[in-house]
Design goal:
Elements: E1 8-15, E2 23-29, E3 36-45, H1 48-57, E4 65-66, E5 71-78, E6 90-93, H2 118-121, E7 126-134, E8 137-142, E9 151-155, E10 159-161, H3 168-171, H4 177-189, E11 196-200, H5 204-215, E12 220-224, H6 231-236, E13 241-243, H7 252-259, E14 266-269, H8 274-282, E15 290-293, H9 307-310, E16 314-317, H10 325-337, E17 350-352, H11 356-364, E18 370-372
Parallel strand pairs: 4-8, 11-12, 11-14, 12-13, 14-15, 15-16, 17-18
Antiparallel strand pairs: 1-2, 1-4, 2-7, 3-5, 3-9, 3-18, 5-6, 6-10, 7-8
InterPro entries: ADH-like_C, ADH-like_N, ADH_Zn_CS, ER, GroES-like_sf, NAD(P)-bd_dom_sf
GO biological process, one term: formaldehyde catabolic process
Family: Belongs to the zinc-containing alcohol dehydrogenase family.
């Protein structure tokens, strides 16, 4: 391409400081270096983790930054040493890398990678090394990706090549939320046929967890949320029962215990709220119940009574649904294209990059959407 090897000027939504609205800016995106890929971002979703960094984490060392980590695009150019990608390839950036060489990548028990940005910089959620500049200063790349930009540069160990026929405005969601919730059910929890499950929180991650429970063969799936408007959507993904904790004068864990003869087999917390995490654990049946922490947070401690675990329950955590990223995302794309998993049903709004602050406000009200990082009549 004519831009290969050159600095690209493009639009990006820059978060200059915590809690402030994002600003549309012209940024400069440097050419990819050794082992890197420059990508033209075509579509992206907004994940609650973007909002977490902007509104909850508030660590000023993580700013200025370009948020966004749930995108899909096309390779514009590659740096030296890149052999598995070429210009024109459709790809999904990955906030969780897979180098294939570290002890974690070689271990089938985990999907962690020692070369991921989070190994050293989880507190600021960005590696200090960046290919972005704006107003003559470096701009961090959030979670190593930064999909709220028309172009981004990513290490090849954090990019998945996908089917050439994949619709980018749909499969972008597999970069985080859908993979996370779905995998938490089928991989981390290991939901079994005929089991009873409860999913706490019905955002995109929670709805994907419901879908995972359904596809794994659960016979009964409780959808738990204080926003009852989400129940109809949860039914689409396979939920069978619906509970609003505010509608009861007792803890929802007790309600679930009464409705399931002692508690559910599997529970998944998809909110990122430490109190809900404890409730999800307490909602499990003793002896074999498994509860999984899926929602992202790192600003509060969580606790539980020891008897909860002594009695035979298991408390687990899940990052990116337990999927080894580069290996699994292309397969998930194929699963969508073959009708094995849903994606279209997660999208409620389509917006332009200039509407990113509107998109963030929509998410804060509990809605879900994707917006597209280029103006197009077809998409906007």
């Amino acid at each position: 391409m004519a831009t290969a090897g050159k600095v690209i000027k493009c639009r990006a939504a820059v978060a200059w400081e915590p809690t402030a609205p994002l600003m549309m800016e012209e940024i400069e995106v440097a050419p990819p270096q050794e082992g890197e890929i420059r990508i033209k971002v075509v579509a992206t979703g907004v994940c609650h983790t973007d909002l977490y960094h902007l509104f909850e984490g508030k660590d000023k060392r993580g700013f200025p930054t370009v948020l966004g980590h749930e995108g899909a695009g096309v390779v514009e150019s590659v740096g030296p040493g890149v052999t598995d990608f070429k210009p024109g390839d459709k790809v999904i950036p990955l906030f969780l890398s897979q180098c294939g060489e570290c002890k974690f990548c070689k271990c089938p028990k985990t999907n962690l990678c020692d070369r991921n940005w989070s190994s050293k910089y989880h507190d600021i959620m960005s590696d200090p090394t960046t290919r972005f500049t704006c107003r003559d200063q470096p701009i961090l790349q959030f979670m190593g990706t930064s999909t709220f930009s028309e172009y981004t540069v990513i290490n090849q160990i954090a990019v998945a090549k996908i089917d050439d026929d994949a619709p980018l405005e749909r499969v972008c969601l597999l970069g985080c939320g859908i993979s996370t919730g779905y995998g938490a059910a089928v991989n981390t929890a290991g939901v079994t046929p005929g089991s009873v499950c409860a999913v706490f929180g019905l955002g995109a991650v929670g709805l994907a967890a419901v879908m995972g429970c359904k596809n794994a063969g659960a016979s009964r799936i409780f959808a738990v949320d204080i926003n009852e408007q989400k129940f109809e959507k949860a039914k689409v993904f396979g939920a069978t029962d619906f509970l609003n904790p505010k509608a009861y004068n007792k803890p929802i864990s007790e309600v679930l215990a009464e409705m399931t003869n002692g508690g559910v087999d599997f529970s998944l917390e998809c909110v990122g709220n430490t109190e809900v995490m404890r409730t999800a654990l307490e909602s499990c049946v003793k002896g074999w119940g498994v509860s999984v922490l899926v929602g992202w947070t790192d600003v509060k401690d969580f606790s539980a009574r020891p008897i909860q675990l002594i009695s035979g329950k298991t408390w687990k955590g899940s990052l990116f649904g337990g999927f080894k990223s580069k290996d699994s995302v292309p397969n998930l794309v194929c699963d969508y294209m073959n009708g094995k998993i849903k994606l279209d049903e997660f999208i409620t709004h389509k917006m332009s990059l200039e509407q990113v602050n509107d998109a963030i406000n929509l998410m804060k009200t509990g809605q879900w959407y994707t917006f597209h990082s280029h103006l197009s009549i077809e998409y906007c």
